[in-house]
Amino acid sequence: MSQGAAAADALQRLAAKRSRADERSLRDRFRREGAALRWDRFFVPEEFTLGFRTPFWDELAEDERLALNHWTYALVYARIRDGEEYARLANRIVAAALRPHDEGVAQLLLREAREEEDHLAAFGAARARILERLGLRGVAMPSKPARRLLVSAGAVRALLLTYGADFVVVYFLARGLANIMGMGFERPLARRADGDPTITLLTRLHVEDESQHYAVSRLLAAGAREFLPARRAGPLRRCATRALVQTVARYTFSERLSKRLERSMSLRAVQRLAALRRRSVAFRSALVDAHFARPGGIELSRNRLLPRLHGRLLAAAALDPVEREAWAERVVVEQQHLRFLDPSDPLLLARRVRSDDPCRQIPPGSRQGGA
């Protein structure tokens, strides 16, 4: 049995198992217990807090540290929300395409879309409470370029129509990597004994759901071609798929893009935090700049998971060797602090230009190395 066929078989068995499990609501859990948030406790581990690994941390009073810690929670879940909004939309559209081929897998994706809807409501309510407490409710925040265009049913349907199974493979590869990054942030929160009990419980339940989603991502990235028609052959098609791979990798996982956005959001927030009102504008700006200039606790936690889990995810994905290398190259060269692959991984070709790749136009006499 091929790797793709084995993944498809495992996915069908997982779909049958999950169809027998009850669905639960994180939103209802937060509605019952969210009024009792402990504002005197950190919501994320102290070392994850904006400003923790900077020279300014020792100067901060406890109320300032708490405010920055609570903002860190709100910031990261704003970014998680962006991913879950896309997953909710894409899952429904991919499920419609899969239904004629496998009803059970289609229903599994629809269940996940409902779970994402529930997560958005639960963490949206928690984040709204936090922003209100921080005095940031209603403050407009920037978003990624072209997000409104890309996170639309029309855009997802167009990609699925154009690329077919290729899009499904790349989407679930990207979703699986996002799941891993979420684990790197949330697992330490879920294990906290000294955090807010409601936040800790909500996170633990979310980790359980997202672990299931990661399993589906891994299996569909490997087995999607067993359910959907095969790609059309030809050099133009191969080059188009390669472009899709690199574009998704860059737009979704470029740390340069992500940190620019998070820095901009944090500058806007920190300048308005009541707890830091006695600090000068220059101090607050310098605090944010220093935080994003070096790896923080979140990046260090993610780096403990990323190389191993992402390496396995990528190795199993139904990409051809050049597409796999193109993904590896793009996610590596776009990073500052995150380590998506181990340096010894054979897929790590960020410093190598393949002269045998017909999709690369390499001028005669140009240097064949380094990115």
Structural notes for this entry:
- By secondary structure, the chain is mostly helical.
- It has one domain (3-343): Ribonucleotide Reductase, subunit A (Orthogonal Bundle).
- It contains 14 helices and no strands.
- The chain is globular, with a radius of gyration of 21 Å.
- Residues 361-371 have low confidence and may be disordered.
Short description:
By secondary structure, this protein is mainly alpha-helical.
The CATH homologous superfamily is called Ribonucleotide Reductase, subunit A
Rounded to an integer in angstroms, the radius of gyration calculated over CA atoms is: 21 Å
How many strands, which pairing sense, and closed or not: the largest β-sheet? Answer: none
Number of domains: 1
Work out the strand percent.
Answer: under 5%
CATH topology: Ribonucleotide Reductase, subunit A
The average pLDDT is 91
Give me some keywords for this one.
65% helix, globular, 14 helices, Ribonucleotide Reductase, subunit A, mainly alpha, 371 residues
Topology diagram in text:
Elements: H1 3-19, H2 26-33, H3 62-98, H4 103-134, H5 147-150, H6 153-163, H7 165-190, H8 197-223, H9 235-253, H10 255-270, H11 281-292, H12 297-303, H13 306-316, H14 321-333
Helix pairs in contact: 1-4, 1-8, 2-4, 2-8, 3-4, 3-6, 3-7, 4-8, 6-7, 7-8, 7-9, 7-12, 7-13, 9-14, 10-11
